[in-house]
Amino acid sequence: MAIELPPLPYEHSALEPHISKRTLEFHHDKHHAAYVNNFNAAVKGTDLDKLTVEQAVKATAGDPAKQGIFNNVAQVWNHTFYWHSMKPGGGGKPTGALASKIDADLGGYDKFVEQFKAAGATQFGSGWAWLVLDGGKLQVTKTPNAETPLAKGQVPLLTMDVWEHAYYLDFQNRRPDYITTFLEHLVNWDFAAKNLAGA
Questions:
Q1: H helices of 123-199, where?
Q2: How far apart are alpha carbons 104 and 74 in whole angstroms?
Q3: How far is CA 3 from CA 10, 35, 145, 173, in A?
Q4: What is the pLDDT along the chain (199 residues), one digit of tens a residue?
Q5: Beta-strand relationship, 155-161 and 127-134
Q6: Which residues, listed in sequence order, are joined to residue 161 by a DSSP beta bridge?
Q7: CATH of 96-197, one of 3.40.50.12780, 3.55.40.20, 3.30.70.260, 3.40.47.10
Q8: How far is CA 80 from CA 88, 155, 161, in A?
């Protein structure tokens, strides 16, 4: 039961001018697809072949013998989550229960922005910035490479990819500009609110 590459939740050009069609063609159609193909090839004929992506992430996390498999399946999950963390016409401030929770746990939206920008900018090399629910409280965190809060018992609400292939064609080495653009024009607060409500 091979896993499949999930389609983008919008057209390749839908996030322009902030993220280009060319970036999404490479990022989704090549990078994300490669993780799917590598995972399927690695687990063919094994028990892992029968698991969902989420189950496979949890089954391989922390096992040095399965690190290669984890890297690929966690990247499949992270990327799928990332596409939904953005939307055309996104950005701005959250509302409702999520906004109240950010105020209560993180000291307000401006403090969240400060922490999220720092998480993305200070993640050395490749990785991810996250807004997660951990023990009932919101937390901004970052993970290197393919690591994911899903494997740590946290509930991911939102993520931003800070691997270079996520932004280099559009922003070159200006990762902070990409992070600001993500927050001001792309972030999908409806998705984060839905994840909080379902936690």
A1: 168-171, 175-181, 189-197
A2: 31
A3: 20, 10, 21, 33
A4: 789 999 999 999 999 999 999 999 999 999 999 999 999 999 999 999 999 999 999 999 999 999 999 999 999 999 999 999 999 999 999 999 999 999 999 999 999 999 999 999 999 999 999 999 999 999 999 999 999 999 999 999 999 999 999 999 999 999 999 999 999 999 999 999 999 999 9
A5: antiparallel
A6: 128
A7: 3.55.40.20
A8: 16, 15, 11
> Is residue 179 classed exposed, middle or buried when 0-12, 13-18 and 19+ CB atoms within 10 A define those classes?
buried
Rounded CA gap, 193 and 195, in Å? Answer: 5
Whole-model pTM: value is 0.96
**Domain ranges within the chain, ordered by starting residue:** 21-84, 96-197
Q: Are 120 and 85 in contact (CB under 8 A)?
A: no
186, 86 Cβ separation under 8 angstroms: yes
